[in-house]
Specification:
Elements (H helix, E strand, L loop, with lengths): L1 H10 L3 H12 L4 H8 L5 H41 L17 H15 L3 E2 L5 E3 H4 L24 E3 L5 H9 L4 E10 L10 E11 L4 H16 L5 E8 L2 E10 L18 E10 L1 H6 L8 E7 L1 H9 L12 H4 L3
Bound molecules: phenylalanine.
Phenylalanine binds next to strand 8 and strand 9.
């Protein structure tokens, strides 16, 4: 019985099999246990001998079980470690990753820049009233300037906003100066060609405070341009005209795409400068319209087109590509 048990212990090749062997040879109904129970019925002169033998056998089996259990546990752990080993030299699983739309990148960079200066982000409705889109911005009804905006008119005096400037008015009506807001948003005009789409994006900016001048406007926008297009770009202002700013300017950025005034440069067309945005000092008529005192407060405003900025920065020839959702285009960013 002892030999048989020891052989079974040696043959058990898993922890579970070993447990079965233990039950079979040392368990309550095992042969050895029976022998021990029957010792009392033996003639007294045999009891000692049989008892000693039985105890020795069970000690020996127990010891063999213990050793085998230790060996099996070690072997099982070694196998598990081997199976679960991670080969860090294998190529990883590809992780499909989206990317930001090129326009969205510009928007986030510009907005982050102004938030860093302490500006607040404001938003307004895309379906706008005639009043906010035009009248409050010093563009009276029947004024020919409205025609320049290629407006989508809706019913009942509503329009699709043609610019983000109505949010200037909404912001000023909602709070007292000082005002520092940046306004990203979609705008709409009846236009479609390689550089115009019926929907596009604008980022408006408005600052109203005591003592603001055109110099603050220029310094602010120069810092913005360097943040977005690189520290080396220069800016210049050119006179322009908007109904809601006086004076009005356009801001050009030095051609950072192909360097200087290279006549072969398609983006800058040999001019060395890129038109970047419209801006100006808030017209006193607009300040009065929202109840601000133009004698006490002055302000500057600007409006830029992040889609155009993305075209320039990434060398995209056709604005319409930005709105078609073609993955072959979008995956390049
Ligand atoms: N709203 C003007 C446009 O759409 C841009 C602008 C904004 C000009 C703010 C001056 C001040 O063309």
């Amino acid at each position: 019985l002892r030999e048989e048990a020891l052989a079974a212990v040696a043959a058990a090749d898993t922890t579970a099999a070993l447990e079965e062997v233990r039950v079979r040879y040392l368990g309550r109904s095992a042969g050895l246990t029976e022998i021990k129970k029957s010792i009392g019925r033996l003639p007294p002169e045999e009891r000692r001998e049989v008892g000693r033998e039985a105890n020795e056998a069970s000690r020996e089996i127990q010891q063999a079980l213990g050793e085998r259990a230790r060996d099996l546990a070690a072997a099982e752990q070694a196998r598990r470690l081997r199976e679960e080993a991670v080969d860090v030299t294998l190529p990883g699983h590809p992780f499909p990753e989206g990317s930001l739309h090129p326009t969205q990148r510009i928007i986030e960079e510009v907005v982050d820049f102004f938030v860093g200066l302490g500006y607040r982000v404001a938003e307004g409705p895309e379906v706008e009233t005639d009043y906010y889109n035009f009248t409050a911005l010093n563009i009276p009804p029947d004024h020919p300037a409205r025609l320049m905006q290629a407006t989508f008119f809706l019913d009942e005096g509503l329009v699709l906003r043609t610019h983000t400037s109505p949010v200037q008015v909404r912001t000023m009506l909602a709070q007292e100066p000082p005002v520092y807001v940046v306004v990203p948003g979609r705008v709409y005009r009846r236009d479609s060609d390689p550089t115009h789409t019926p929907m596009f994006n604008q980022i408006e900016g408005l600052a109203v405070d005591r003592g603001l001048t055109l110099a603050h406007l220029k310094g602010t926008l120069a810092a913005m341009a360097r943040h977005v297009f690189g520290g080396a770009v220069e800016v210049r202002l050119r006179p322009s005209y908007f109904q809601f700013t006086e004076p009005s300017v356009e801001l050009d950025v030095s051609c950072f795409v192909c360097g200087g005034s290279d006549p072969g440069c398609k983006v800058c067309k040999g001019a060395g400068w890129l038109e970047m945005l419209g801006a100006g000092m808030v017209d006193p008529a607009v300040l009065e319209e929202v109840g601000y005192d133009p004698e006490e407060y002055t302000g500057f405003a600007f409006g830029m087109g992040p889609d155009r900025m993305a075209m320039v920065r990434y060398g995209v020839p056709d604005l319409r590509l930005f709105f078609e959702g073609d993955l072959r285009f979008l995956r390049q960013f």
